[in-house]
Specification:
120 residues; 8-stranded antiparallel β-sheet
């Protein structure tokens, strides 16, 4: 195994990584095949449209988001979820401060660049 997080993660002990204005994340668990990321958005925060080869599914913990996948846009709230297929452009605009849990497969190696404390 090239990448592996700790068996248990106390999210409150992790430092937020600012990834864009109004958007920060904590990587809470991963190995080579899967990664879970806690993403916090301020109202107005934007997850810019992008595409990647990873499979992804996202769960809305709180807040309200305008999510676009391909050419389709929906408003999602707490307990909703979305699945942007691999290589399909997607993005989100936070309408009310909120949190997403993103799960990727395989691991997003680009997210681990510069991170310390992880087994490689």
């Amino acid at each position: 195994m090239k990448y592996e997080s700790s068996l248990f993660t106390k999210a409150n002990s992790l430092v937020w990584e600012e990834v864009a204005p109004g958007m920060k994340r904590k990587i809470v668990g991963f190995d080579d095949n899967i990664m879970m990321v806690h993403v916090h958005f301020d109202k107005g925060g934007i997850g810019v449209r992008h595409a990647h080869h990873h499979s992804q599914t996202s769960f809305v913990v709180s807040g309200k988001f305008e999510v676009t996948i391909g050419s389709e846009t929906k408003i999602l709230e707490a307990n909703d979820a979305f699945y942007p297929p691999p290589n399909v452009e997607h993005g989100a605009v936070c309408l009310e401060e909120g949190v997403l849990i993103d799960v990727f497969s395989p691991v997003r190696e680009d997210f681990l660049a510069g991170e310390s404390g992880y087994k490689k």
